[in-house]
Amino acid sequence: MTTVPAPSARAVPPGVAHPKSIRSFVRRAGRTTTGQARALADLGPTFVLPYSGQPIDLAAAFGRSAPTILEIGFGMGEASAHIAALMPDKNFLCCEVHPPGVGALLKRIDERRLTNIRIVAHDAVEVIEHMLPLRSLAGIHIFFPDPWHKKKHNKRRLIQAPLVARLATRLAPGGYLHCATDWQPYAEQMLEVLRTEPLLKNATDDSRGGYAPKPDYRPLTKFENRGLKLGHGVWDVVFVRV
């Protein structure tokens, strides 16, 4: 679902922008349904924020001051809506470029009468770089990014040191980064990359190999349930900003 090249194995130094070639997504084919298109037209003006090259005023965007959690690549928004409903005291800033997914989440927002979600339909890397102030986030969710199974494509994976370094600076002290994947080699890479980021520490002890138990707030998606029934594993990785 989400991709990013890795120009370097080490974190980007402060003040150095990401190369322009980096993207947090791949374009996917898909048809926007009539309901999704209607949601985009009717609800988009309220819940979809325009991309801006300037830092965002989160309190103004949500109409209140509250801890904000960034979600990168929410797919069709199933988990996003579920978690936002569980945590009405938190704001959720959700990034996704796929129009059917944006429309689907807007429909869920309407059905659940949610008020604590805002969507930016733009590349998350640029949103992080230009719109999110330092230490502005209470948490970050990255659930099931594209694993790019072939070794020659591993460099396209989202979880790479340069991006993690940027994400860490946007977390407030005590804020968390939660990643989940159903591909064990990617889970191992996530652990390796996050362990090398000096601003982050693992929230889980080594008794589980560094992996976290699935937090109660993360729902099991239909895709995940199907995989579990087939004997596939799922790995959660949670790190905290020091």
Main attributes of the structure:
242 residues, alpha/beta, seven-stranded mixed sheet, disordered N terminus
What report would you give on this structure?
This protein is an alpha/beta fold and 242 residues long. The chain has a single domain (35-241), classed as Rossmann fold. It is 33% helix and 17% strand. The protein is built from eight helices and seven strands. Strands 3-2-1-4-5-7-6 form a seven-stranded mixed beta sheet, sandwiched between helices. Helix 1 (34-47) packs across helix 4 (99-112) and helix 3 (78-86) packs parallel to helix 4. The two termini are 29 Å apart. Mean pLDDT is 88; it is low at 1-22 and 24-28.
In a nutshell, what does this entry contain?
By secondary structure, the chain is of the alpha/beta class. It is 33% helix and 17% strand. The chain has a single domain, classed as 3-Layer(aba) Sandwich (Rossmann fold), CATH 3.40.50.
Low-confidence segments = 1-22, 24-28
Q: Which fold name is given in CATH as the topology?
A: Rossmann fold
Our Rg estimate from Cα atoms comes to: 17 Å
Largest sheet descriptor: 7 strands, mixed
CATH class: Alpha Beta
Q: How many structurally independent domains? A: 1
Strand arrangement, largest sheet?
3-2-1-4-5-7-6
List the helices and strands in order.
Answer: HHEHEHEHEHEHEHE
- At the fourth level of CATH, the homologous superfamily is Vaccinia Virus protein VP39
Give the count of helical stretches: 8
Overall mean pLDDT stands at: 88
The chain-level structural class is alpha/beta
CATH architecture level-2 label: 3-Layer(aba) Sandwich
The proportion of strand residues reads 15-25%
Work out the number of β strands: 7
Termini distance?
A: 29 Å
Secondary structure: helix percent:
25-40%
Shape, please? Answer: globular
